[in-house]
Specification:
- With about 450 residues, this protein is an alpha/beta fold.
- The chain has 22 helices and 7 strands.
- It has 3 domains: about 160 residues, HUPs (Rossmann fold, 3-Layer(aba) Sandwich), CATH 3.40.50.620; about 80 residues, Serine Threonine Protein Phosphatase 5, Tetratricopeptide repeat (Alpha Horseshoe), CATH 1.25.40; about 140 residues, DNA Cyclobutane Dipyrimidine Photolyase, subunit A, domain 3.
- About 45% of the residues lie in helices and about 5% in strands.
- Helix 17 links the parallel strand 3 and strand 4.
- The chain is globular, with a radius of gyration of 22 Å.
- The structure holds flavin-adenine dinucleotide.
- The site of flavin-adenine dinucleotide has 28 residues, from helix 7, helix 9, helix 12 and helix 14.
Length: about 450
């Protein structure tokens, strides 16, 4: 990372030089982002094994096993890929992961399960592009009415402190806080318990997850919380102790002081009767039309030497805008609006800094991209801005503001599936029945 011009605070431009030294990097970030360190210690970040950047991503990608994945992914010790932090930040594209998975199997069908799960990410991204900031509101009325008081607007203190007394829940919370990653099943159990058992509004839980997850993403996260809550699914997701025990080999339940009398004891029928009223929910069919392709600005001009804007969705030199303009200067902005809204903890900021450190020459700033980008583009002799396509409504708004002053080009990601016939995103099953088959085809190599 290089210092580039008078606007760049030295400390920011220097963070990449610390990328090989986690403790010093965490300490430097703690000074730059004091709010993040209030919620996580420098020492705990230094202990996290996951590192940002393409090198670490490719090492992990090389170890994936689609066949073992299909057989074991629901178990917390299963052969899941743990690629989500790099995929979320565009260090790996889902097409690239799919291609790699296909190359590792005898016939494409052996990679079906992994490709289906990549499909969930693709689906949530499409829904995000269609709904924008509305992913933070109920997508549809709840599928079942919860008994008891109205939902709590915050996550209770005993949950945040990991001191509920429930061994599984406390273990999940501690690990989320310490490492920023949970297995999908653990996320489902934790979200379900918080929403249905503790009666917390799903948005409070989703916002809390977003602060801590290394892969924190409003599309996958908020929409998964809604799927669990039943505000974007046919029924709320609940689990019982038998389910948790079988996919954790009983490690939490055996020593749990609440064994035999915890909140998720019983059959699914008993749990549903305990948690939800028998009154049927009133809701109609859900239809979500896909968003048209996004093109900021109306001028139609394409910059020839743009300033490449690496966003949170595209933190690598292989991401589309950087790859399309190898000679152009690069910039990343720690967006003040994002920092205030999502309150990322130190571990996420360290992951981001490590990704940036592998981009080579890049300017790093903090502030409002809509203000910084046009000015830096001019000062660096560029004729506009280029960025990778993104469903993020904040980035889209900023790019549209930039496009009022300078041409903005949006570079597409490698295609994951063929979506041209999709007219409705109301349910994953409907979406996937239209595009899933095409997702099993590898990316065509350039002629
Ligand atoms: C309440 C809740 C919150 C979640 N929040 C996030 C989030 O903020 N960011 C995030 O990336 N995922 C989120 N997920 C989805 C999923 O749990 C993670 O993507 C997955 O556990 C990451 O581990 P992995 O890389 O080993 O996944 P694997 O099982 O190995 O799957 C490979 C990749 O496919 C994608 N993927 C797999 N399952 C899902 C899914 N259900 N939804 C979306 N993408 C999926 C991910 O990119 C993942 O890296 C959430 C799920 C729940 C239930």
């Amino acid at each position: 990372m290089s210092a580039a011009g008078p606007h760049v605070p030295d400390a920011l431009s220097n963070i990449a030089t610390l990328a090989n030294d986690r403790p010093r990097l965490a300490a430097a970030l703690a000074e730059l982002f004091p709010d993040a360190v209030r919620r996580q210690s420098v020492e705990s970040v230094a202990r996290i094994e996951v590192r940002g950047g393409r090198r670490a991503a490719l090492t992990r990608l090389a170890g994936i096993d689609p066949v073992a994945y299909a057989a074991t992914r629901n178990h917390v010790d299963g052969a899941v890929t743990r690629l989500s932090p790099w995929i979320r930040h565009g260090v790996l594209s889902i097409a690239e992961v799919r291609d790699h998975a296909l190359a590792r199997v005898r016939v494409p069908e052996d990679a079906t399960k992994l490709v289906d799960e990549l499909g969930w990410r693709d689906y949530w991204q499409q829904v995000y592009a269609a709904l924008g900031p509305a992913v933070a509101r109920d997508v549809e009325p709840p599928a079942a009415i919860r008994r008891g008081a109205p939902p709590l607007s915050g996550v209770p203190e005993d949950v945040l402190a990991g001191s509920t007394g429930s061994a599984c829940i406390d273990a999940f919370v501690r690990r989320l806080h310490e490492t920023g990653w949970l297995h999908n099943h653990e996320r489902m159990w934790l979200a379900s318990w918080i929403v249905h058992v503790r009666g917390v509004h799903w948005l409070a839980g989703a916002d809390w997850f977003l602060e801590h997850l290394l892969d924190g993403d409003p599309a996958s996260n908020h929409l998964s919380w809604q799927w669990v809550a039943g505000t974007f699914s046919a029924k709320p997701y609940i689990f019982n102790r038998a389910n948790l025990e079988s996919f954790t080999s009983g490690v939490h339940c055996a020593p749990c002081p609440l064994l035999g009398r915890c909140d998720v004891e019983g059959s699914y029928e008993e749990l549903a009767a305990r948690l939800f009223s028998s009154a049927p929910a009133t809701r109609g069919p859900l239809r979500i039309p896909p968003a048209p392709p996004w093109r900021p600005g109306t001028r139609g001009e394409q910059p020839r030497r743009p300033l490449v804007w690496l966003t949170l969705d595209a933190l690598a030199d292989t991401s589309p805008a950087a790859a399309a303009h190898p000679q152009s200067p690069r910039i990343f902005v720690f967006d003040q609006g994002w920092l205030a809204a999502e309150r990322p903890t130190l571990k996420r900021l360290a992951f981001i800094a490590e990704c940036l450190s592998e981009v080579g020459e890049i300017e790093v700033q903090r502030g409002d991209p809509a203000v910084i980008l046009p000015a830096r583009s001019r000062e660096l002799g560029c004729d506009g801005v280029a960025l990778a396509d993104t469903p993020c409504p904040r980035v889209r708004r900023q790019a549209e503001a930039i496009a009022a002053a300078a041409p903005v080009s949006v570079e597409p990601w490698p295609a994951f599936c063929r979506r041209d016939r999709v007219r409705d995103l109301g349910r994953f099953s409907r979406y996937w029945s239209q595009v899933g088959r095409s997702a099993l085809e590898p990316t065509a190599s350039p002629r």
